[in-house]
Amino acid sequence: MKFFIDTANLEEIKQANELGILDGVTTNPSLMAKEGITGEKNILKHYTDICKIVDGPVSAEVISTNYNDIIKEGKNLSKLHKNIVVKVPMISEGLKAIKYFSLNGIKTNCTLVFSAGQALIAAKAGATYISPFLGRLDDISSSGIDLIGQIRHIYDNYNFKTEILAASIRHPMHIINCAELGADVATCPLKAIKDLLNHPLTDIGLDKFLKDYAKGNS
Ligand code: E4P
Question: Which residue is closest in CA terms to ligand 1's atom 7?
Answer without folding.
Answer: 168
